[in-house]
Amino acid sequence: MADVGTELRRFRAINGLTQRELGELLHITTTQVAAYELGRARPRPKRMKRIADVIGVPIQAFYPELFGGPPITFKRQTKEGNNGISR
After folding, report:
1. What is the Rg, in whole angstroms, of the alpha carbon atoms belonging to the chain?
2. Region of residue 68 (left: phi > 0; alpha: psi -120 to 50; beta: else)
């Protein structure tokens, strides 16, 4: 079972975003993004929703064990705008 930080890092990398770029999109510091990814801090629910929206995945992607489904796989966005989410 992957934790939120691991999933955040994975989805961020798939989107081709650096920690700095994600931080800018979320209006938080690079240090805070790193803390989330390393499990040193946990995003509050409102911030977690914003992270999911910015990355382009449903919030359930971070908590598959809570929603009874398999982990969501994610492919890099295409030019057509398909975010490549699949189960």
Report:
1. 12
2. left
The fold adopted by the segment(s) 4-86 is: 434 Repressor (Amino-terminal Domain) (1.10.260)
* pLDDT per position as a tens digit, 38-84: 999 999 999 999 999 999 999 988 887 777 765 566 555 544 444 45
Q: Please list, in sequence order, all residues whose beta carbon lies within 8 angstroms of the beta carbon of residue 67, skipping any fewer than 6 positions away.
A: 60
Identify the CA nearest to 53 among candidates 21, 30, 29, 25: 25
Q: Where are the domains of the chain?
A: 4-86
Whether the predicted model's global pTM rises above the 0.85 cut? no
